[in-house]
Amino acid sequence: MRTVLVIGIGAGDPEQITVQAIRAMNRADVVFVIEKDDRTEELVRLRREILDRYLERRPRIVPLADPPRDRSAPAYGSAVEDWRRRRADQWEQAIAAEEGCLAFLVWGDPAIYDSTLAVLDDVLARGNVEFDHEVIPGISSLQALAARHRVPFNRVGGAVQITTGRRLAAGFPAEADDVLVMLDSDCTFARLDGDVDIYWGAYVGTPDEILVAGRVAEVADEIQRLRREARERKGWVMDSYLLRRPLPPR
Predict the structure, then answer these.
(1) What is d(CA 79, CA 75) in angstroms, rounded to the nearest whole number?
(2) Which of 31, 191, 212, 220 has a CA-to-CA distance to 105 between 20 and 30 Å?
(3) How far, in Å, are 156, 178, 215 from residue 198 at the CA level?
């Protein structure tokens, strides 16, 4: 029986790799490296540097070119489903061609806005290839962000919500006072009205880290400028932020 390890490798700082993740990487006979495009070559390089730093034995590295996703499609859900289906087609063939212990390295934590587990479930449901799989948690970009800003996710008795920029566009969630936002290429925070603080970070945990905190109305323009300049310079950007509004009187 093949074993597939889904290993969370943190937000970019190689010193945030857990002992459990290091042990898992050293079990792997094959490591699949997802290569998106030339703009994210740096992410592939960082993965390889992590492997070089912590591996005591040398697995075989198998690159997988990630299928492109149509980000301009009007139907977001169907576009994502099509992308995941094409990923599953590719991964099914790659896994079937290997034996032993196989590994996927996942940025952050596999449980937070990452499709690896869903795609593997799809592959298993097809019934064409059998494998067991294990999940090794990692330090998410949200945890790293809060640590760098020296703030907790929540306040006393408060509710926290993790969401996306697409959902935030409908307004600040009514049921939460503290909101963690990922996948926001449109800087949706800039549209918010009212007394809201933001703790924003890009490339958290890497030498290119950028941090900004303050009242949204006062720092939104600065964040958008920094984000735009960073994307132009590097060709890609990974960022997230915490939004915090005042608690009602008790």
Answers:
(1) 6
(2) 212
(3) 18, 10, 6
Residue with tokens 């703030």: 151
Percentage of the chain modeled with pLDDT above 90: 75
On whether the CB atoms of residues 175 and 161 are closer than 8 A, the answer is: yes
Dist CA 215 CA 61 (whole Å): 45
b/e code 135-173 from CB counts within 10 Å (16+ = b): bbbbbbbbbbbbebbebebeeeeeeebebebeebeeebe
Pick 69 or 84 by higher pLDDT.
Answer: 84
State the DSSP H helix or E strand holding residue 101, giving kind and residue range, or none if neither: strand 101-106
Question: What would the two tokens of residue 206 be?
Answer: 């890497």
Is the predicted pLDDT of residue 250 greater than 80, yes or no? no
pLDDT at 249: 65
Nearest Cα to Cα of residue 64 among 105, 28, 29: 105
